[in-house]
Amino acid sequence: MAGEQLKGRWSLNGMTALVTGGTRGIGHAIVGELAGFGATVYTCSRNQKDLDERLQEWGAKGFKVYCSTCDLSSRTEREELMNNVSSTFNGKLNILVNNAATVILRRATDLSAEDFSRVLGTNLECPYHLCQLAYPLLKAFRSWKYSFYLICGW
Ligand SMILES: NC(=O)c1ccc[n+]([C@@H]2O[C@H](COP(=O)([O-])OP(=O)(O)OC[C@H]3O[C@@H](n4cnc5c(N)ncnc54)[C@H](OP(=O)(O)O)[C@@H]3O)[C@@H](O)[C@H]2O)c1
């Protein structure tokens, strides 16, 4: 009911968004919400099969969603992702949602140096780097203020 009322009040038609980790959980809900309000959304995950399934689901609802695989813990893959986003959206981005994160539920004493480094790489360095990469695209739309961090969980 509240969602229906909101849909009548405002729209994201013509807006573009990048949501990392849109195949599951909160990221999946955010993609659906933004696309439901009319935004064109780009998302990513490491799993092509999940992306294909989600694309079918969003396509059936008439949502405009693009995607590609990306391991966000890799600096090179993050750069490739932003290049794909830029060419898909003609160099302009309105909304960046840094949603994807890695959570390793283990006793601190059992966490290896590699695990710790992977968690920090995905949850801290990645959103920071994506903000840097996205800045020119957000600036093109004067949308640098609409960048969201959804990082936590460990
Ligand atoms: N759930 C909660 O209770 C909760 C509470 C507070 C904050 N949060 C935060 O909210 C965000 C989403 O949480 P969630 O529970 O919805 O997570 P989730 O269900 O585990 O989904 C995570 C998404 O991110 C993707 N992802 C993870 N690591 C990735 C990587 N290295 N490269 C590319 N994609 C990656 C996953 O796809 P693949 O694994 O297939 O790559 C998946 O699409 C996280 O930042 C989390 O810390 C969650």
UniProtKB/TrEMBL annotation:
One of its GO terms (molecular function) is oxidoreductase activity. Keywords: NADP, Oxidoreductase. SUPFAM superfamilies: NAD(P)-binding Rossmann-fold domains. InterPro entries: NAD(P)-bd_dom_sf (IPR036291), SDR_fam (IPR002347), TR (IPR045000). Signal peptide: none annotated. This is Tropinone reductase I. It comes from Coffea canephora. The lineage of its organism: Eukaryota, Viridiplantae, Streptophyta, Embryophyta, Tracheophyta.
